Amino acid sequence: MLSLLLFIPILGSILLLFVSDNEKMKKIALATSLLNLVLSIYMWVQFDSTTTQFQFVQSPNSIGAEGFTALALNFYQFNIGVDGLSIYFVLLTTFITPVAILSNYNNIDNTSGGLKYFLISFLLLETLQIAVFVVLDLLLFYVFFESVLPVLFIIIILYGSGTAKIRSALLFFLYTLAGSLFMLLAILEINTYVGSTDFQLISLSEINLESQKLLWLAFFLAFAIKTPLWPMTGWLYRAHADSPLAGSIILAATILKLATYGYLRVLINFLPDASHYFSPLVQTIAIITIIYASLATIVQQDTKALIAYSSIGHMGVVILGLFSNTIQGIEGAILLALAHGFVSPALFICVGGVIYERTGTRIINHIRGLVMYMPVFTILFFIFTLCNTGIPLSLNFLGEQLSLIGIWERSPLVAILGATGIVLSACYSIYLYNRVSYGSYSPHLKPLKDISRREFILLISLLIPTILLGIYPNVILETLHVSVTTLLYVL
Fold first, then answer.
1. What percent of the chain has pLDDT over 90?
2. Which residues pair with 135 in a beta bridge?
3. Signed CA dihedral, 386, 156, 253, 419: sign only
4. Which of 166, 176, 205, 368 could be bridged to 442 by S-S, CB 3.0 to 4.6 A?
């Protein structure tokens, strides 16, 4: 089943190479991504949450038996599987990909890169991201962790709309590549120490504390840049501001979650002693990140840059939960990561899609009084703005509260400082909504049309899981309990 999840987007990409009609290409790409979504939901329904073992495990031999001999690498064991920590990131990836494709459904035809390669890029990204979450080998984790970089680099260069898109793409590429070189060195060291890079063999190995510290720092640098944490945040808002809408959606929803998964799978799971040792450092950096990003968000004038900075603040709360060493904190961090994967793309669709496509600007001072001509959009924008602030009945609320409750058990002071992010998020979110939606209608704008059916479907599809999972979180939590307990280490 996992091999199908990896290969369906590739097969869709190959099929696109032989199609020249734009409408057919769009339908093929959308149908391919939706098929993968249905398959991932079926896998989730079949998932057994009572065990900590990897499930749907496939090796090169079993994959070859299904006809996918391309995965039978002679030089390495390509084993894949999912557990409670990875299955929801796979689901998020398959859910967001059709949303990203549909977000640029009507406005990518006339760009310099062409529609065909745009669609192929996002289907390939889906395969590469799923591979990060399902491979059971640390070296292959690194390979796929880095393989998303050149694809995103090309997307920003060819399809980005900003005047500084080349600089933004280079910063994104160089920042993340430079940090990951240290991760590669750490993986090679683990291979020397353990004799393998297989997840299960590493988890059974005893690594002394001094070695764990060095390995932990190397991995943490790579993940901190991808999160991103202060002071390595400079690439994110530029990449968001200059990338196409679909690129911003993927960046916010899933690319940032590669680091979240890395913390869970590698740092906390394989290097628990070092994770405990460096927890005060991580918490300090997370607090600085939350406050810095929130204050920087308030003064932004570009709408996409504002949403990008808000993502940094929310990911800071995720880090606090992950390193709380409590069930509530870790589960809350996973919930908040998923909630961010729904709400942040919706806000990008609002400001970088609906508003930008109609007004041609992202400067907040040029946009006022949209409620006069766009009442339906204003209502949906308001709901997502509230969700971004973490109101009750939203998944964001549960994620933030559980993360802060978890870190409160370890350090009430850190929890109090982390909670300032909730107050500040309300400030910049409501401030943005009020300036854009109300006041006298901007003289820079002509009368605007309300949202289209396609845009309405996109926003509703992101709103439904945000609210439903906020009301019924046990759908996720009950399948997380067993896997999360394995991450707790004895103090």
1. 20
2. 80
3. negative
4. 368
